[in-house]
């Protein structure tokens, strides 16, 4: 409170051209008029002297204001109460903003967690399907290899049968040729010439 009282006094001294309602005594008005009536200082030394001259006036007015302390005290108490209320309101506002931010962050993190869980589930399902497809592919590849092996086996059997039949027919042709040679007769068909 003591810091604010000199501030008012200096404001009163600085605003001398305007009549101040806070100066109730005619003596204070005379002092203020004396301060205004002084000519403006011309040099630095005179400014220092003027500032020295103002110090006792300020001290005098502070003493005079102490006489009416209950009025100033009520004003200062009212101002302190207002500042206290404003600081409480500001603290409440900050707390509410913090709550809102925390709530939003919590919801955002839960959404992110939900998203990650769903993505992981879908990726696991995709991996499972890929594994099933790989397994089916392997089964089909094995089945096709078995079919190819079976076809190759059948082809080998047919080749063997043809080779066996050819061997039999060659033997049969040699036997007939030997028989015809032995009997001296000619075959009835000669390569379609007859």
Automatic annotation (TrEMBL):
Pfam family, one: Remorin_C
Remorin N-terminal domain residues: 29-80
Ranges of residues in domain Remorin C-terminal: 84-189
Polar residues biased stretches: 11-20
Annotated spans, Disordered: 1-31
InterPro entries hit by this protein: Remorin_C (IPR005516), Remorin_N (IPR005518)
Keywords attached to this entry: Coiled coil
Positions in coiled-coil regions: 119-150
Source superkingdom: Eukaryota
Residue ranges, compositional bias (Basic and acidic residues): 1-10
UniProt similarity note: Belongs to the remorin family.
Protein name, per record: Remorin C-terminal domain-containing protein
Native source organism of the sequence: Brassica oleracea var. oleracea
